[in-house]
Structure formats: C-alpha cells, structure tokens
C-alpha cells in the first residue's frame, strides 16, 4: 500500500525552532538549506528534509543519525542501504508531501496559478493539448495543473525526471478516471489524484496499485517532536 504524508505550513515557524530543527540534519544538508536567500524557501526545504527523515525513522525503526540519503544519476533521492524503501517528495507553495511505497513511487504538488496555457504546446502531447483546449474557461487551468502533476508524478516514479520527454506519454482524465498511454515498453504504473486543497493539485504514481483515500497531514511541530524523541531514545539506549 502506498502511504502519503504532508505538511501545510500555515504560519511561519519561529526562528528559534527553525535553528533547533536544523540540528537534526547532517552539515552538508544544513549548509544547503541555509544558502536559500528567502527564509520561506529555506523553511520549505527544511520541512521536506525533516518530513522525509521522520518517515524513514518511523517506517524502518532506525535512528535519525543513521539515515543517509543519496541521489541517482538523474537526481532521484534514495536511502542508502535500503534501496527497496521507495519514497518521493514534492513541494509547492505552503505544501510539502511525501509518498512511501514498496515499489517505485513519484508524487507532485503544484499551486494553481495563472499561466500562459500555450506552454502546454511545448511540453504536453498532441492529444493532451487538444483535450486541454477543448475545455471551457476556468476548467482549462484546472485541467492543465491536473495533467502537469500527473506528468511530474510519472517522471518522478520512473526516476529519469525531465530527461524523459514529456510528450512521449499522455494522460486523459475522463470523469475522474485517469487514462495513461506511453511510447515506452509497457510497465504497470498506477495513478491517483487528490483534491484536498482547492488552490493546489496533487498526483501520485506508483508501480503498486493500492493508494490511501487521504494524505496523512502532520504539523511541522509534530515532526520536530518526533525527531526529538527519536534522539532522546537513542541517548537513553546508549546509556544502558
Ligand atoms: C526536479 C523534477 C524531478 C521535479 O521538479 P519540481 O516539480 O519543480 O519540484 P518538486 O518539488 O515536485 O520535486 C522536487 C523533488 O523531487 C525529487 N527529485 C529530484 N530529481 C528527481 C528525479 N529524477 N526523480 C524523482 N524525484 C526527483 C527531489 O526530492 C526534489 O527535491 P529536493 O531537490 O529538495 O531534494 C523535474 O521534474 C523538474 O525539474 N521539473 C520542472 C518543472 C517542469 O518544467 N515541468 C514541466 C511541466 S509538465
């Protein structure tokens, strides 16, 4: 079963908590997070790092210090020493979401914003462009972001990211059914979209067919507490 977790940062986090939370991360990751010019971007990146660490500690029963992430040649993050533990992250606006699965998985969240829909002609398949421009008024922008998040979830599950041509595969959404076609050799991918926030679109792709009905939503503070307890438990076990 795919599992989904998310954090929506409704308010900004106090600087003090931000600094304390940084200490759960290895120096290299801390430096990367501190390099963001805008505090909001730095905070979102920190939130994503904390969420993914907490999930790994929780699911695998290991302590935070032994969690080591690496990236594939295409940039897809994986957990060193646990290559069969599949996860993926996405962030946009105030949301950070993470998917976990026993098979390759990809997730995407996008904040819906006004854009020039002609961009679809550059990135989407011919069929997708034709479906998109057949929609009325506001439906167009909604449909654009539904297609976009599905496409991103697929390239992220596949792992090749943008080196997989975005027009080499196609989605059609008909009465909430997601129809997927691809020029690649047939492989079984399953998709689900989530409508949990009207300003955003969410999509998940996995080679595993079972998806939850909902995303398990946590707060920044909850995730921080979890990692703090994980650290205290480790200290306690060391003493005994
Ligand atoms: C990097 C990419 C995989 C996702 O980018 P994105 O949608 O802008 O950003 P998201 O927040 O959803 O995902 C970023 C996360 O995906 C993960 N990721 C990076 N490369 C990945 C890959 N090859 N496969 C799977 N996951 C990947 C990382 O965890 C990354 O976060 P981090 O850099 O903070 O660790 C890639 O698809 C991209 O650059 N997209 C640009 C958007 C675009 O032009 N889309 C076309 C519209 S259809």
From TrEMBL:
Domain 4'-phosphopantetheinyl transferase stretches: 104-205
Entry GO terms, CC: cytosol
GO BP annotations listed: fatty acid biosynthetic process; lysine biosynthetic process via aminoadipic acid
Keywords recorded for this protein, A-Z: Magnesium, Metal-binding, Transferase
4'-phosphopantetheinyl transferase N-terminal domain span: 18-101
Obligatory cofactor(s): Mg(2+)
Alphabetized Pfam families for the sequence: AASDHPPT_N, ACPS
One term of GO molecular function: holo-[acyl-carrier-protein] synthase activity
Family: Belongs to the P-Pant transferase superfamily. Gsp/Sfp/HetI/AcpT family.
NCBIfam families on file: pantethn_trn
Protein name per its UniProtKB record: 4'-phosphopantetheinyl transferase
Organism listed in the record: Acetivibrio straminisolvens JCM 21531
